[in-house]
Amino acid sequence: MEFITNPLSLLIILPAASGLALLAVPPGKEGALKGLALAAALLTFLVSLKLYAGFDPAQAAMQFQLDKPWLPSFGINYFLGIDGISLLMIMLTALLMPVAVLASFSYIKESRRAYYATLMFLEASMIGVFAALDLFVFYMFWEGMLIPMYFLIGIWGGPRRIYAALKFFIYTMAGSVLMLVAILWVVSAQHAATGAWTFSLPALYGGALTAQAQLWLFAAFALAFAVKVPLFPFHTWLPDAHVEAPTAGSVLLAGVLLKMGVYGYLRLAVPLFPDAARVFAPWLAGLGVVGIIYGSLVAWSQRDMKKMVAYSSVAHLGTVMLGIMAFEPAAVAGAVLQMVNHGLSTGALFLLVGVLYERRHTRMIDDYGGLAKVMPGFAAVFMIVTLSSVGMPGLNGFIGEALVLFGAFRVYPWLAGAAVAGVILSAVYMLGMYQQVIFGPLRHTENKVLPDLSAREWLYLAPILVFIVLIGVWPNPFLKRAMPAVNSYIALSRQQPAPTVPEVKFSLGGKEQE
Amino acid sequence: MIPDPVTYAASALSGPLLLVLAAFACLLLPLFFRQLRGTQGIMALGAVLIAIIFLRRAPSAELSLFSGALLLSPLSAYLWAFTLGVLTLVILLSVSRPAAPEESQGEFYFLLFMAAIGLMVLVAAGDLFTAFIALELLSLPVYALAGIRRSKPGLEAAYKYFMLGAFGSGMTVMGIAILNALYPALTFAALKVGPAQPLALAGFLLVISGFAFKTALVPFHMWVPDAYEGAPTQVSAFMAAAVKTGGVIVLWRLFSLFDGGPIREIFWWLAVITAVSANLMALAQKGLKRLLAYSSVAHAGYIAVAFFGGRQGFEAVLYYLPVYAMATIGAFSVALLLEKDEKGPLIEDLAGLAKSRPWLAGAMSAFMFSLAGVPPLAGFFAKFYAFAGAVNSGYTSLVIIAILMSAVSIYYYLKVTVVMYMKPAANGHPAEPPGIMEAVIFLLAAGVLLAGVFSRPLLILAAEASLWF
Lengths: 514, 469
What we know:
By secondary structure, chain A is mostly helical. Helix content of chain A is 73%, strand content 3%. Chain A is built from 21 helices and two strands. A two-stranded antiparallel sheet of chain A has the order 1-2. Chain B is built from 19 helices and two strands.
């Protein structure tokens, strides 16, 4: 019963069950299908609101815990629980899902049943990643998420969808398998030290691992997460996947999936291996800054709007990485907030590009211009979202970016200084694109008849706009909830290793005794 | 709580004996009663279902029969149940689409039953010599089954399989002869305490090579692609699921005779070479059955990795076998359903399957993702358990190689889903009314979907069985 009454578990089971239910909708009942999909997504969002309401912002401990034995012989439990960071991520996921469903109504014309079911399965696994406190459960959702996303890109994507889908799947999987070995290693080291099998994260925090082992293990985890973030130079799957994915796929990819990589550092890699994390942190922060500059420069040179937004994601996530690797309260809090911000603003940008694409079937900047005259509503929304993305004060992007830069400056002054350049660059290319698309003369006759945003489009853009402004002027409720989690992350990253050293054998031959 | 040994032995042996009876009934009755011709499949199905109904949970004790030749324990009970399950599935497939021509129906089921009995004896064998006889009882019918259509690809498959298999058997006999000269007895228990000397090593190597043939470990896998491709698909499914199991169990028994030393090193290399080369060779395959053949070789490699996990690893192997069998038999069933000639469909023939038969495509994807080891499908859990034991015993580098190769395998498994979902249909797959075969496929798909997340019952049985080793 607790599987349903616990809101976290419900947030996983509800979308998964709705996905199955959607598959059972008889073919031809399109209205019912869409209605059901939207209802399921909205219901999930309502449950997430309950989570928000019941969350105690003062507590640093994991809340809404559910811990049920699953595979007891291996010490694997169905162990869920959230802190402020996961709360925000789950809220973001639950908010973006109805938006994604609404945005797909007119865009998706083939195999709709499977499409909406896939979205629901995706939501279940994404929430599962953020809610899991057991390494095995985490890994299961982490990898399981690939299947729906793969089909989403591969079936309903653009012309090069097969290449993009395969690249996405293989890249992410190849990055993650070593993490599985590392997980097994950590668990067996813990078993060697304590005699008990456990995959529970809180039990594994502060485990006694040698510095040498930590380096290897951290590297294995860091690789998996770096691919997902994506950190330069592991980012090459991202532009392909983003560009080929259908609009809803891009929104979820940018909005939620990339956050899973950062979340992995916050929840697993750093707290599990703090010594190694401190060694690697400057390098990861450095890669983040390289990503900011590189992503911005490449974005600047794009003529395809979707590609530009995709590369801007590389830059934004670089900022986030800089923040979390600074181990400084302001920077980490800013990074967490920036994760939410990026999900909102980049999600909205993909939606807006999708709006244009549905009307004109092109994403090239050169095919537009002067849209302000025919689509004033669109132009206004686009303005707000663009400004949010470049970090304009008063909107959400500013708070996150500023906190990251202030905090990171105390730790890595040079890197933070370089990151500022990226912020400026982002204003250059984003505003440049905005100007070319919205202002100027209406060069193309086809554009003269473009209809403005429809009621449905307003409906799915509105909630994002509300949060963009809300976080911009009043970020406190969000920061307040994230702060205890941020502090405990920093505390975990500073802990000293225990002196005991359990030895797990490591060899290249088959010589040792069992 | 050991029951009366006679009662236990009688009830346990009634299963194989019933199969012997059924085998002869399928072969002979139709010769005498004309009206029974064509019903052999039903008879076989009935017999195997009766055998399944009489399956009982074995008492926690080991009963040694025929002066140690046959060991009855929860382990043998577990593997016998597995054998009966595989046999049922193969018979179901053969009933809905006969693998053999009309006049050879009786022989087909006779041979199939004989092979199954061979497997049952093999997994319960207490000494090497019994294991060898059982191996022959398992292999000889399968050689004949591969060529039962007497068509060119079938005969080629049977010929290759027989030649290489006979070579493998010859090596096994040679090895057994050497060991027989050195050890007082050939029981596995006696072999464990025997003296270590170079000649014994040679004997073990020969025996291991022989069984590695059946398990299809590289470099003893050469027969696999041709045999799987040319044999009737029902038989290929049986080979992939059942014949391999026999080899795996005996190899495990041989492996666990050694606590270290050169034999372990050889197994280490066998596992590595198998995992690496099978996955690389699979990348280039065009035929679905050939792809599944190489995939089965690769899985033999992962199972060999699990050997290094000690008892935990053996438990994993016992879980791995049924999970792998479900996915492989399922995939072969899909191949059977779509095949137009004996060599089975090419991968590209599956194009557009998602449009014309979405549920079938869904089931096939489940098999592929399970074989690839993607959660939440059962194949992931199987690999996880297999690798967990090996990492825990300190064989991290072995696991790293195996897991990287399993990441490579993603590519060719995904290729199948790409073709089904993302390529337009080349030639339509006419939607046929669902029959037995579809039922089998969906049953197996449900199996790979659920056996992972709900793996506890199967794991408990496997753990119990692994104790009796």
